[in-house]
User: Which sequence fits this backbone?
């Protein structure tokens, strides 16, 4: 990561609105890498896939997301 010259963001500190208001920034031209596959990645990767030119998700191990179940008695 020391050699990477692009922008780095932590998902918790990322100001999406600021990026989208910058006239020099174009999502359709961006190649995005997401490191990790926890709950933050589960939330942001689908949105990035719709906007960015290419998205690659790097994860150490598999993750799984299940629909929650609501039981009413």
Assistant:
């Amino acid at each position: 990561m020391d050699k990477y010259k692009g922008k780095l963001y932590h998902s918790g500190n990322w100001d999406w609105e600021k990026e989208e208001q910058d006239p020099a920034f174009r999502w359709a031209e961006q190649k995005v890498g997401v490191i990790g596959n926890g709950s933050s990645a589960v939330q942001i990767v689908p949105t990035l896939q719709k906007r960015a030119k290419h998205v690659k998700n790097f994860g150490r191990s598999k993750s799984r997301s299940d629909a929650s179940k609501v039981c009413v008695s």
